[in-house]
Amino acid sequence: MAIERTHKITLIPGDGIGPEVSGAVVKIVEAAGAAAGVGFEWHRFAAGADAFEQTREYIPKALYESIEQNKVALKGPVTTPVGGGFASINVTLRKKFDLFANFRPVKSLPGLKTKYPDIDLIIVRENTEDLYAGLEHEIVPGVVQSLKIITEKGSSRIAQFAFDYARKHGRKKIHAIHKANIMKLSDGLFLRCCRKVSEGFPEVEYKEHIVDNTCMQLVLNPYQYDILLTENLYGDILSDLCSAFVGGLGLVPGANLGHGCAIFEAVHGSAPDIAGKDMANPTALLQSAVLMLHHINEGATAERVQNAIEQVYREGKTLTRDVGGQSGTRAFADAVLEAMSSPATI
């Protein structure tokens, strides 16, 4: 089919397994788009240590400009040094473009056996403040202070995002997750904002759970939850916990959304221990690309890709090692491409 429209997308392949999984995802997205007359123009940029070697900048100015112009980016995992080095590329980009909503759907894939079948949770996480504001200093030698920043603006708009999503997509229940029994001012402000926003959505059941209790309740019975509305740190921890319900971090997508730009990325890290070995599972980044396709109003192409992913998992013949298979990154991607040509996914 002739290409009728083309989308300009900023692509950050990442490092570690990033180039492998992003390469597989680009190949699949392009094939799905071509079948619907949709083309993609990828503007590729390195970030992190790789970018610093090339440009002496961890996030090149040209990358910032590309995201500002294209409004949409697809990002592979980028290694963040632990206990030193440069700041998290993920956090820096979210703050730079005010991507205040981190959206992480956690949904079971057909055919994949887990301890918790048929999971369908959504984590809506505030993305710009809390301890991730990165405001730390050493008061005296041996004493370091990190500042937890919670604002009425940040709390209100993430709550509004969650309730708007629930109304639009027919979700019935939202739990605000907090530790207001201890952090009475900061988490207390977050809860007051959530309560106020909830008043405008009487059709959505609103509840509140303390974060440590939430962890226990999730393990005991994750089906009691629908949407988890969280501050930044709690959402990061809970999304990793919930990913275990559906098979691990290699499966869960993520979107960072603001009023002007959006960056779509996998939840998992760069896994340097398996980089270059054709072992990585591209499913998380591929499902993140599905979210991206919906965001740019290419729903038919998004569904084509998602249906193909689910067909490959349902058949279970070409899965990667992290989910019990024996296939590599390339073989899995080829299986998804083949599935897209079958009548079931057209």
Topology:
Layout: E1 5-12, H1 18-35, E2 38-44, H2 49-55, H3 61-70, E3 72-75, H4 89-96, E4 101-107, E5 120-126, E6 136-140, E7 143-146, H5 152-169, E8 173-178, H6 186-198, E9 205-210, H7 211-220, E10 227-230, H8 232-246, E11 253-257, E12 262-266, H9 283-295, H10 299-315, H11 329-340
Parallel strand pairs: 1-2, 1-3, 3-12, 5-10, 8-9, 8-10
Antiparallel strand pairs: 4-5, 4-11, 6-7, 11-12
Top keywords for this entry?
346 residues; alpha/beta; 10-stranded mixed beta sheet; two-stranded antiparallel ribbon; 12 strands; 41% helix; globular
Structural account:
This protein has 346 residues and is an alpha/beta fold. Helix content is 41%, strand content 20%. It has helices spanning 18-35, 49-55, 61-70, 89-96, 152-169, 186-198, 211-220, 232-246, 283-295, 299-315, 329-340; strands at 5-12, 38-44, 72-75, 101-107, 120-126, 136-140, 143-146, 173-178, 205-210, 227-230, 253-257, 262-266. The strands form two sheets. The chain has a ten-stranded mixed beta sheet, sandwiched between helices. A two-stranded antiparallel ribbon has the order 6-7. A hairpin with a 4-residue loop joins strand 11 (253-257) and strand 12 (262-266). Helix 9 runs antiparallel to helix 10 (299-315). The radius of gyration is 20 Å and the shape is globular. The mean pLDDT is 94.
